[in-house]
């Protein structure tokens, strides 16, 4: 399973507030199949097969254009572990176990 951290930034929107765009990105993710996702204060975490993750990233990258943005900057970080099952939750549990 691939885990991606994605930040989508519409540029030239005429306002410093991006929350309407972020809300729309979350709506787009709700319609994507084969993924799990969670919103953080700085990015969105997307989990699923690599193909599903890339499809979701493409969909949310395109979303601000449909909302009137003329330029979009998207940053992506991907953790694609293939030797065993992985998830954001599992990664957090592993670190928490080592803190005890």
TrEMBL record:
Family in the record: Belongs to the UPF0045 family.
InterPro entries membership: MTH1187/YkoF-like (IPR029756), Thiamine_BP (IPR002767), UPF0045_domain (IPR051614)
Domain Thiamine-binding protein, chain residue ranges per copy: 4-96
Region (Disordered): 71-100
GO CC aspect terms: cytosol
Record's compositionally biased regions (Basic and acidic residues): 77-92
Organism field: Paenibacillus lentus
Protein name: MTH1187 family thiamine-binding protein
């Amino acid at each position: 399973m691939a885990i991606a951290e994605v930040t989508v930034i519409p540029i030239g929107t005429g306002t410093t507030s991006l929350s309407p765009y972020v809300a729309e990105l979350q709506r787009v993710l709700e319609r994507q199949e084969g993924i799990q996702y969670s919103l953080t204060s700085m990015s969105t975490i997307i989990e699923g097969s690599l193909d599903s993750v890339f499809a979701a990233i493409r969909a949310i990258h395109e979303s601000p254009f449909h909302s009137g943005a003329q330029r979009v900057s998207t940053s992506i970080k991907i953790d694609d572990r293939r030797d065993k099952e992985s998830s954001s939750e599992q990664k957090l549990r592993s670190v928490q176990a080592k803190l005890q």
